[in-house]
Specification:
With 128 residues, this protein is an all-alpha fold. It has one domain. The termini are close together. The longest helix is centred in the first third of the chain and has 29 residues.
């Protein structure tokens, strides 16, 4: 029996690893940012409100989705894409302009594209 790994094209591996590398860059960057912000002086900190907790929980979901995408590309891409789009819509309605969301969509979309083509190859391999 021939496995799918032998017939997988090189571009699919490049796509998968590009998504993984971008995702890890974003996760590491935002973890450093959160750690740095939490270690800042407390004299400039303002108390959190419900809106802030909502946005932070969506950030947590986005980063969790990017990490899940390392093992389950479809699920991780869907979680990170959905939570990022919810943040984008919520903050746009609130009047904030946050262009970083467009960069976060890159690994999410690459995860989903990679997952889709991998599933297509599995279906065509099984039907052959």
């Amino acid at each position: 029996m021939v496995t799918i790994e032998q017939h997988k094209p090189g571009w699919l591996n490049i796509l998968r690893w590009t998504a993984r590398i971008f995702a890890m860059i974003f996760v590491i960057f935002f973890l450093f940012m959160f750690i740095g912000e939490s270690m800042g002086s407390s004299s400039h900190n303002t108390p959190f409100h419900g809106r802030d907790y909502f946005i932070l929980s969506l950030w947590f979901l986005t980063l969790t989705g990017l990490i899940i995408g390392l093992w389950h590309e479809g699920l991780g891409g869907l979680v990170s894409l959905a939570s990022t789009l919810i943040q984008f819509v919520f903050l746009t309605v609130e009047g904030d302009n946050v262009p970083i969301f467009f960069f976060i969509l890159i690994p999410s979309a690459l995860y989903l594209i990679s997952w889709y083509y991998h599933k297509q190859m599995l279906v065509s391999e099984v039907s052959s």
